[in-house]
Amino acid sequence: MSSATVNRRGYRQSERFSRKRLWRSAIGVSAGAISIASWLFVASGITYLPYFKISSIDIYGADPDIKDRILAAASGTLQGDYMGMFSESNEWIYPENRMVAAVASSSAMIRTVSISRAGRGTLSISVTEKRPSAIVCPELPDTSRDGSPQPAGQCYFADENGLIFEPADLDSYATSSYVTYYIPGSVGLSDGGSVIGSYATSTAEFVNLGSFVSGCRNAGIQAFAVLFKDGGQYEIYAGDPMVVIYADDQADLGKELSNLKAFWANMSSSSAGRTEKPLDYIDLRYGDNVFYRSSQ
Fold first, then answer.
1. For residue range 84-137, what is the model confidence (pLDDT) as tens digits?
2. pLDDT for position 276
3. What are phi and psi of 92, to 5 degrees?
4. Which residues of 40-71 are buried (b: 16+ CB within 10 A; e: fewer)?
5. Is 81's pLDDT higher than 90?
6. Of 61, 223, 34, nearest to 129 (Cα)?
7. Rounded CA separation 201/84 (Å)
8. Which residues pair with 149 in a beta bridge?
9. How far is CA 200 from the centre of its chain?
């Protein structure tokens, strides 16, 4: 009898001890949670203090025409909070990566963006703008008296990847050193779509053709305009007096350029080339054979 009583008492004592231990654990967890919540509350309040708030944004390197858009884009990222607790306008925890992305998206003219703190409550945003690589015209060119193409309608500056980012001033064409690309019927340019921020053509085609034109110029063939035609056909206008160079992207533009350089060097050095009349055209579309016609 006594043995059974002792066991029951031990069980009841063990049960009471377990309940106390659970209760103490619960109290400890609750106290820890309250402590963490208190610290979070304090930290949250600190992030909203005016002393740490971003109150001004300075912008450097941007054209005046896009400064307001940059400022609006940057300020827009400071209006919210993290998880409803921490202010995004706090100078120590503002969303830098999101701000960089927003500023970069505010204008197609922007190439790079960097952001840094510049004293109490002030951010400094520095941007670099894209440099034109070519002029893109979505309409067929007009023809001048000497037969050379001239821009018709509004044309645009594009970067090295063919991204259109700014209207081109027509008055700049007379002295422009940029190659002009005439791309009639291109999507986004002639169908009423958005022009700024769209691509003149695929980046691969734009880059490959740009390399071809640069190769021409390096060889002394002063290419100044390119007309895009159906089926990957191009007319490249070069020289003064002007010669039309026919090329085809269905073949290897690099090979066509190599053939053109060899032909041009031969014509320039030979006695026949020095005395021959100016060329009307050079046709590179037939493999290793280069066809041409002289002015009569």
1. 677 888 888 899 999 999 999 999 899 999 999 998 899 999 999 998 899 999
2. 57
3. -95, -25
4. eeeebeebeeeebbbeebebeebeeebbebbb
5. no
6. 61
7. 44
8. 143
9. 13
